[in-house]
Amino acid sequence: MENKNDTLDAWLFLTDLYSGVNDKLERTLQEKNNLSLKEFYVLYFISKSDDKKLRLQQLQEMIGLSQSAISRLVVRMEAKNYGALERHVCEDDRRGIYTRITELGENKFQRALNTFNEVLQLDIQYDELKKLQHLIPKLS
């Protein structure tokens, strides 16, 4: 018979693992690449999209930020000292605004992706993955 707390223990393990890795990703991306995790996700989603551009509304939904927060984030990333993105008005709908990744942004993303993968490989050890694999069924 399963312990009544197995599901809760599995959930707490999962959230603790996520929080720790998320914090480490945030810290390491900032230190090595001068990028926040949200900025990294912006570059990731845009770089994998067709034409290397997305509407701000699409980014807002993907990143999970408010309209004003995504707008401020993109403006910072478009700034001359950052230069990773550039803004374009949608030709079909003048109200729509696209942001496109620049060559500088693509290079910055590739370097940050290496950092991201290093952190994941170092932080999520094989034993934790095995334990996680064992705990997942308890969450269903």
Automatic annotation (TrEMBL):
> PROSITE patterns given for it?
HTH_MARR_2
Tell me the ranges covered by the HTH marR-type domain, including all copies.
1-140
**What's the short name of a Pfam family annotated to this entry?**
MarR_2
Protein name (record): DNA-binding MarR family transcriptional regulator
Q: Which domain of life is it from?
A: Bacteria
What are the alphabetically sorted keywords of the record? DNA-binding
Q: Name one GO biological process term.
A: response to stress
* SMART domains cross-referenced by the UniProt entry: HTH_MARR
Looking up InterPro entries in the UniProt record yields:
HTH_MarR-typ, MarR/SlyA-like, WH-like_DNA-bd_sf, WH_DNA-bd_sf
Lineage here is:
Bacteria, Bacillati, Bacillota, Bacilli, Bacillales
One of the record's GO molecular function terms: DNA-binding transcription factor activity
Source organism of this protein record: Paenibacillus endophyticus
Q: Which PANTHER family does its entry note? A: MARR FAMILY REGULATORY PROTEIN, TRANSCRIPTIONAL REGULATOR, MARR FAMILY
